[in-house]
Amino acid sequence: MFSSLRSRLWLSYAFLIVTALAVVAIVLILFLLRNPLLYRQTLDRIKAAEGVLATQPGPPLNQPTSMERLQSVAVAFDVRVIVFGANGAVIQDTNNNDAAISFPARPSIPRALPTVRDFSGRVWLYSLRPLPDGNWLMVAAPRPRVQQLLTVLTDELFAPLVEGGAFALLLSLVLAFVIAQWVADPLQQLIAAARTMPADAIKPVSERGPHEVRELTRAFNAMVARVQLNQKSQRDFVANVSHELKTPLTSIQGFAQALMDGTAESPEARRQAAQVIYNEAGRMHRMALDLLDLARLDAGIAEIKWSAVDISALLNNVVEKFKPMASGAEVNLKLELASDLPVLLGDGDRLAQVFINLVDNALKFTPREGTVTIRAVRYKDEVQVSVSDTGAGIPSEAIPHIFDRFYQADASRAGGEKHGAGLGLAIVQEIVSAHGGRISVRSAQGRGSAFIVHLPLGQK
User: Fold this and answer.
1) Is the dihedral of CA 214, 218, 223, 229 positive or negative?
2) Distance CA 37, CA 149 (A)
3) CA–CA dist 126, 143 (Å, integer)
4) 381, exposed or middle or buried, with CB in 10 Å at 0-12, 13-18, 19+?
5) CB neighbourhood size of 287 (10 A)
6) Is residue 61 a contact partner of residue 83, using CB atoms and an 8 Å limit?
């Protein structure tokens, strides 16, 4: 019955409420028992009798002639009057038939209700006043009995206490139920949504309840969005890998079949078939290496060999590598280096892989008599290296996806000609991130593109 969160919250609140009401009732009863109305009434009688005796004219209270006056006050106020001498001996006592009361010692801790016991053990409430002649006046009355107090509690206070307590309990339980529902319902929604994971159609959970529950809901919705995005990325990744492998496998299978069934009869045909098989196998091998590299970079286990890197020398080597390719494509390859370029801390081979990939892409997408420019400058606490071209540019809708795996915008940049499997820029981004940097792109159709690599100084 109390297995749900709402029921357990309500039960917990109800237990706390009942406990609080019980504690309040017990404290109230104890207070009434220790400071009841009858106690105050008795003390008022004592003080009134004391005031009358202190202000009423007549002979000194230690004289036998004053006994009649003492007796009349004692009867009128239903108290006991005792006069003590300076040495504490009893001089006058209106209740001689009762057990004697000795002169009370001064208590070490002042009490709100001064009490004294007679020789029979009976407890008296009293007041003690010094007289002008050095004697002491005590006015005492028996302390009300517990039975009398219980009668007062039962007859006068029990019904209001029970009625008020019952109303408070009922109201508190209703409020506790509302609060428990307010807290538990959003959590139940989260539980129901979590059980449907990892469904693609799951909708964000509405934010309700306390601040902490709303924060949890926001975190859950963000997690769901990330999971759905990762699922989509995984599906796209598998589909893209399958598509990219299908073409070379089809070529390899077709030309291998031609060699097997003798369709390729001439030595030239057989050589051509073998060359296609070799090229497509190499393409698959490069794709496998790129995928393995990406997996290691994603997992953070790719080996980064940190050392001092001369960025000027590295970029010069990249330009020398591509000069023959640029010359053959009739593209002008320019290198512009600032004079204050510092030495970077990074992996020289990995950084060379970044710029080789960027320059290779720029050359592929730059028409004849175009220009590819590599520019490196120092800006604040980083080095910025840009690789720009004068090609067709990248469509604005393609720029947010340019670093996605297997994404290609070749049709808009090179007349539909396809280059690679679309993993190069994804690897570039991962390598730059591993160095604590970032990469951005600026492009306008018809005016070329520029990839800017931001590398921090001293990153390790």
Assistant:
1) positive
2) 9
3) 9
4) exposed
5) 19
6) yes
Tokens of 142: 């028996």
With helix as H, strand as E and coil as C, how does the chain read?
Answer: CCCCHHHHHHHHHHHHHHHHHHHHHHHHHHHHHHCCHHHHHHHHHHHHHHHHHHHCCCCCCCCHHHHHHHHHHHHHHCCEEEEECCCCCEEEECCCCCCCCCCCCCCCCCCCCCEEECCCCCEEEEEEEECCCCCEEEEEEECCCHHHHHHHHHHHHHHHHHHHHHHHHHHHHHHHHHHHHHHHHHHHHHHHHHHCCCCCCCCCCCCCCCHHHHHHHHHHHHHHHHHHHHHHHHHHHHHHHHHHHHHHHHHHHHHHHHHHHCCCCCHHHHHHHHHHHHHHHHHHHHHHHHHHHHHHHHHCCCCCCCEEEEHHHHHHHHHHHHHHHHHHCCCEEEEEECCCCCEEEECHHHHHHHHHHHHHHHHHCCCCCCEEEEEEEEECCEEEEEEEECCCCCCCCCHHHCCCCCCCCHHHHCCCCCCCCCCHHHHHHHHHHHCCCEEEEEEECCCEEEEEEEEECCCC
Rounded (10°) CA dihedral 335, 341, 347, 349: 20
Across 175-201, average pLDDT: 74
Q: Which two tokens stand for residue 168?
A: 């408070």
For 80-119, what is each residue's pLDDT tens digit?
A: 999 998 888 888 898 888 888 888 887 655 556 788 888 8
Vertex 456, ends 452 and 460: CA angle to 5°? 130
> 126: left (phi > 0), else alpha (psi -120 to 50), else beta?
beta
- Stated pTM of the model: 0.51
Residues making up the chain, counted from first to last: 460
One-letter amino acid at 313 equals A
Q: Residues with Cβ < 8 Å from 115, sequence gap 6 or more?
A: 123, 124, 125, 126, 143
Q: Is the bond leading into 400 cis (omega within 30 degrees of zero)?
A: no
Q: What pairs with residue 126 in β-bridges?
A: 140
- Taking the C-alpha atoms of residue 393 and residue 395, their distance in angstroms, rounded to an integer, is 7
Q: What are the pLDDT digits (tens) for 202-244?
A: 777 788 777 777 888 888 888 888 777 777 767 766 776 776 6
Q: What are phi and psi of 456, to 5 degrees?
A: -75, 155
Residue 424: CB atoms within 10 A of its CB come to 19
Task: Report CA-CA distances (Å) from 132 to 59, 94, 99, 424, 440.
Answer: 12, 21, 27, 113, 104
Structure tokens at 244: 């990219």
Which residue(s) pair with 123 in the sheet? Answer: 117
Structure tokens at 14: 């109800």
Tokens representing 327 are 């010359």
